[in-house]
């Protein structure tokens, strides 16, 4: 049962659901969604027939389901919206990033990719004004040594001078800045190899996988795995001159180069701005197993996967589009975040093509939170398809159809959308199911870690 006390109406609805004759089937449906907090409801049927004989091999209809509906996972990547579906998305992102670091034969990425130069780089936003922080030594500029969870962290020391407009415009153009960075990076690598960009394409390929993260001050930065491959991607060895040192030096040069910038023209009372990356650039080599000082493949993949399910919620903003400024009062949005959102509202008519108000809940950012170059590794679509194929094979086996040739089978379906979500009682029960599944996953993960530790000792 949920840890918190339930109000009488929710408790009554919970008892209604739990005492229903079809509760076990409802529980099975929700468990199959992973405990999804906002499942999609479908009504309809599917009919499987033998093409040759016309024999009905299987028939399914939602008429026999609880409420006459089939419930499917919503698939939302945001942990603030659906923790269970976000867990699945994070798992897929983890395997996608790790495949580009350690290889995955089933996805066509050889283990020799471990021998390619690869680093984990973090590119940060510039300063828009001093903020409350926790320096390694000493105290914040306000004279206070803040606790790790202090609400003031990341907020402006002087809101009247902080460049809120510049902060949201930087977020809005961060994707363009990343594109210019990768273009310059290829030029820097080519220069260090003593060749032209055209010659570089014949000798090596640059690949990356990245994720965006919001700092507490509401400014965006990118974490990226960057790798040099041979000319045909991860299954070809990089040239001898391609080393981690060459890649690291090229990244630093590309991030600091004047080409790696985005200019925003002046409009009415807003001055012209030129955005570049911040001075806090971090580039570290990725080790296969680690030596106590460098980050490992697993650590990098876990880090990227963690932020793939987040957005700007850690700043106190909303996880959906904002209709009116008055919503900020109802949801008690912090003052620093509110000022960033208000800046989006003010700037929206000045830069109509940037759609700042539509993305005010993301503090101006409108790009993909996680993305990769084409040849970095597998894709999220391929991982989802592999999971769907596995479940389809399980279903065929359960129905006794695994020995039937697919070409001899005709499948007819008719599905209709019938809503989404839970009643209050269902929501409480689904949360309990999700927690049980999470506990089982954590237990299994701990067992695998212990087994791996014992194998290393041997």
TrEMBL record:
A Pfam family: RepSA
Highest taxon in the source lineage: Bacteria
Alphabetized InterPro entries for the sequence: RepSA, RepSA_streptomyces
Name this protein carries in UniProt: Replication initiator protein RepSA
Native organism taxonomy: Bacteria, Bacillati, Actinomycetota, Actinomycetes, Kitasatosporales
